[in-house]
């Protein structure tokens, strides 16, 4: 299966964090906590090393937002196929993800509807879908991910901690949304050779 919705970037996650993110998150209230899933919103300056942040912002075409997401899923707490867009008011076009604990049995899966999909009326598909891409999110590099295509998360045998950084231009703007093709062009120089 060809990779069209994710690309490994040449930006390493080595020494990215200056705190133990699990301890940090357990000390704050989750933004969402439901059925084995938690979402934390963290301040980048509080959790990431300042030199690492500066280096990432230097490499990116658009700097990072001041906050990032931490997605935590318990084993078998899987996520249904969905989009991260809620047009026309709000949403995200893409993210830069990596996981803290690698697991070969945890996947991010992308789908293609075999019908005219439901967007922009809903973030969930309204008919049959076909799996098009399955990827293990890396621990050592940032992964550029398309959040406008239908995707899901399947959690394996261990708890999944996923860091998700969002550049300023990743936010969906009503009337002038950036496309995934434009995102890929902007990140072309940072995409590692993929087979």
Identify the notable features of this structure and list them briefly.
4 helices; 13 strands; seven-stranded antiparallel beta sheet; 14% helix; mainly beta
What does this structure look like?
29% of the residues are buried. This protein is globular. With 195 residues, it is mainly beta. The longest helix has 10 residues, at 50-59. β2 and β3 (37-43) form a beta hairpin. It has helices at residues 21-26, 44-47, 50-59, 180-186, and strands at 6-12, 32-34, 37-43, 67-73, 79-82, 85-86, 90-91, 94-99, 107-113, 129-135, 141-146, 151-154, 160-165.
Helix and strand pattern = EHEEHHEEEEEEEEEEH
> What proportion strand?
25-35%
Radius of gyration: 16 Å
By oligomeric state, this entry counts as single chain
Shape: globular
Termini separation = 10 Å
Class inferred from helices and paired strands: mainly beta
Number of E strands: 13
Poorly predicted residue ranges: 115-121
Please give the largest β-sheet.
7 strands, antiparallel
Sequence of strands across the biggest β-sheet = 1-11-8-13-4-3-2
Integer average pLDDT = 86
> Helical segment tally?
4
Helix content: 10-25%
